[in-house]
Specification:
Helix content: 25-40%
Protein name: 4Fe-4S ferredoxin-type domain-containing protein
Order of helices and strands: HHHHHHHHEEEEEEEEEEEEE
Number of helices: 8
Keywords: Signal
Radius of gyration: 27 Å
CATH superfamily of the largest domain: Kelch-type beta propeller
Strand order of the largest sheet: 4-5-8-9
Number of domains: 3
Distance between the termini: 28 Å
CATH architecture of the largest domain: 6 Propeller
Mean pLDDT: 80
InterPro entries: Gal_Oxase/kelch_b-propeller (IPR011043), Kelch-typ_b-propeller (IPR015915)
Shape: elongated
Bound molecules: 2-acetamido-2-deoxy-beta-D-glucopyranose
Organism: Oikopleura dioica
Strand content: 15-25%
Oligomer: single chain
CATH class of the largest domain: Mainly Beta
Length: about 325
């Protein structure tokens, strides 16, 4: 028994240590000025997708703890993350920082199209020149100028000063195109299903994902927790209500969380969070279903991913 407790305590201490390291790294992150914030946002979305794949198959808290560790490693490795604080200059080998310009003459369509246009203009220009070297030189000068506007052509300059604004924008627009379809967390849409099918509701004011939804009795629905992708994927503590086709913020959780579940019983919503310390929070409502109070009523023994909740009697065993 003593040994068990020792191991338990050591594990918990290790876990606490990880939390402290993460907090310290988060503080560091805040202080750094990072030039690749947009890439960081893309990267966090990719990490989250991997985390989702990892966590959805977990059946115990050890497994989900591993997924969280992988999530931390992934997030830290992102441009602007703890291991790459000032962005792509620190980690050029990160896939999102990698160079789309390597062998661009073979692989990069934007570059190839741009080059062909410049060659076409040059060809046209040379052919209408009288037999004077000055005119031909002028054609080549114009060709050079056109080339400078092509993506990748400034690669050498980019390599030495990756932060040059034009260079970064060029690289970034290409990245956006590549990653556009990974951005499955990037919407604020809400819809309602009735006998006639789905109809659109007003957009949610924030770009929140992995939240919990729960319906109240009187035609309203709550959105609890989640991560805010308009704000770098930050954990969310807000409680939102959708009522009369309007979204409004009605309160705050005591502990921000995501990938949890909520259930409504006797004018209280019970919210079981997923992220350490696995808080269980209760939201109390009055007769007119207005939020009165938020209380933390305990912790779960571990993280349960999107747990299924149902109402039962005390000490009931399935
Ligand atoms: C090169 O470009 C300039 C400015 O666009 C233009 O005035 C000039 O005629 C061009 N040169 C030739 C040879 O077409
Ligand atoms: C992204 O998805 C849309 C719709 O599914 C598709 O039409 C488009 O070609 C995709 N873009 C890329 C870059 O894969
Ligand atoms: C939604 O809220 C806005 C302003 O807060 C209000 O003008 C509008 O009437 C509300 N809509 C409904 C259907 O209650
Ligand atoms: C639901 O709304 C109706 C009409 O506004 C009201 O009479 C009723 O008391 C409400 N019930 C609850 C539980 O809020
Ligand atoms: C419920 O709470 C709201 C806001 O706190 C208050 O305005 C309302 O009167 C309360 N309803 C009842 C029936 O006490």
């Amino acid at each position: 028994m003593a040994r068990f407790w020792n191991i338990f305590v050591i594990q918990e201490m290790r876990f606490l240590l990880i939390i402290f390291i993460n907090l310290a790294q988060a503080a560091l992150r805040q202080r750094d000025i990072c030039n690749d914030q947009e890439i960081n946002n893309e990267c966090l979305v990719v990490c989250d997708g991997e985390f989702f794949e990892c966590a959805k198959n977990c059946e115990n808290s050890e497994c989900s703890r591993k997924c969280f560790e992988e999530l931390d490693v992934c997030e830290n490795s992102c441009p602007c993350g703890a291991d790459c604080p000032t962005g792509c200059v620190d980690c050029p080998e990160h896939p999102l920082c990698e160079d789309e310009c390597e062998d661009a003459q073979l692989n990069n369509n934007d570059y190839k199209i741009c080059l062909n246009e410049a060659i076409y203009e040059l060809d046209f220009c040379l052919k209408i020149c009288p037999p004077e070297i000055g005119c031909h030189n002028s054609c080549y000068e114009n060709y050079t100028q056109m080339l400078f506007l092509c993506p990748c052509i400034e690669q050498e300059r980019c390599f030495y000063s990756r932060h040059s604004e034009i260079c970064r924008q060029k690289l970034f627009t290409k990245r956006r195109r590549i990653f556009a379809n990974f951005s499955y967390y990037e919407h604020q849409k809400a819809e309602t299903l009735s006998a006639t099918g789905w109809t659109a509701l007003p957009n949610h004011p924030k770009r929140i994902s992995v939240h919990s939804l729960v319906g109240l009795e009187n035609q309203s629905m709550l959105l609890i927790g989640g991560r805010d992708y308009g704000n770098g994927g930050a954990d969310q503590s807000r409680i939102w209500q959708l009522k009369d086709e309007n979204w409004s913020k009605i309160g705050e959780l005591l502990q921000a969380d995501f990938y949890g579940s909520a259930i409504y019983i006797d004018r209280s919503v019970y919210y079981f969070g997923y992220r350490s310390p696995y808080a269980i929070q209760r939201l109390d409502f009055n007769e007119t279903e207005d939020l009165q109070n938020v209380a933390r009523i305990g912790n779960q023994p571990g993280g349960f991913f999107l747990p299924v909740l149902f109402h039962t009697v005390s000490d009931y065993c399935i």
